[in-house]
Every structure is written in structure tokens, then in C-alpha cells.
Q: What sequence folds into this?
């Protein structure tokens, strides 16, 4: 009976080790796969320096599908849009693709997140100054 108990305990320890090894192995694989998928899905982060002439004259093409999208961080850093007048925005960014009295929309091209495209929306207050802006990706 003593030998049987020792044998049973040994089998139990081996079973626990096996389970812990499997959990660790699969956990590591899932963690690695998650990191890999995250890196693939986040897209290429490219930052172009904002240049008003390149922005205004940009035409979407296979060679430059995301120029404006890539310039957005630089634009926000170099030119605080909030508080600008409509005239200043037009001088900086040119004519928007669509506009109303209170809103300008600029097409940004491919956003590098699947097949999504981006849009910069600028909102104006009653004094024709930028009250808010947003970048849409979808």
C-alpha cells in the first residue's frame, strides 16, 4: 500500500508539472502571437514634415496615397489650428474638398489601417475662428 501511495503521488506531481508546462507554453505562444498581430495591424508609422505647398498640391496616387495623413502630426505640432481664422486656414491648407459656413473637410488619403481613409474636419465659431478640429479614420 505504501508503494502505491508513493506511485500515486509521483503521478500527481508529474501531471501537475505537465499541466503547468502546457499552460506556460500556450500562454507564451498566445502572448507572442498577440504582439505579432499588434505590430502587423498598427500599420507603418510614417511622419512627413508638414509643407503647405505639398499639402495643397497633393493628388492621391499609388506613389503617394497617404501624404496628407502622414503630415497630420507635423501639422498639429507646427500650426496650432485652434483660434486660426478661415483665411489663415485657407492660406495654410488651401481649399477644402467640402465646406459649409461652419465646417471645412480635407481628405487625407489612405490612413494605413486596412482600407480606411482619413479626413480632417475643422469647425468654426461665429467669429470665423477655428473652435475645434478632428481627424477621422474610417
A:
Amino acid at each position: 500500500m505504501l508503494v502505491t501511495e508513493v506511485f500515486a503521488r509521483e503521478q500527481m506531481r508529474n501531471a501537475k508539472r505537465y499541466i503547468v508546462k502546457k499552460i506556460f507554453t500556450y500562454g507564451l505562444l498566445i502572448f507572442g502571437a498577440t504582439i505579432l498581430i499588434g505590430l502587423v495591424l498598427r500599420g507603418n508609422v510614417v511622419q512627413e514634415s508638414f509643407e503647405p505647398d505639398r499639402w495643397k498640391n497633393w493628388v492621391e496616387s499609388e506613389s503617394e496615397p497617404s501624404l496628407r495623413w502622414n503630415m497630420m502630426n507635423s501639422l498639429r505640432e507646427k500650426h496650432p489650428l485652434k483660434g486660426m481664422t478661415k483665411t489663415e486656414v485657407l492660406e495654410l491648407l488651401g481649399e477644402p474638398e467640402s465646406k459649409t459656413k461652419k465646417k471645412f473637410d480635407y481628405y487625407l488619403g489612405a490612413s494605413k489601417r486596412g482600407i480606411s481613409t482619413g479626413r480632417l474636419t475643422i469647425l468654426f465659431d461665429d467669429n470665423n475662428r477655428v473652435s475645434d478640429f478632428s481627424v477621422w479614420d474610417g
Remarks:
- Helices lie at 2-41, 52-57, 67-78, 86-93.
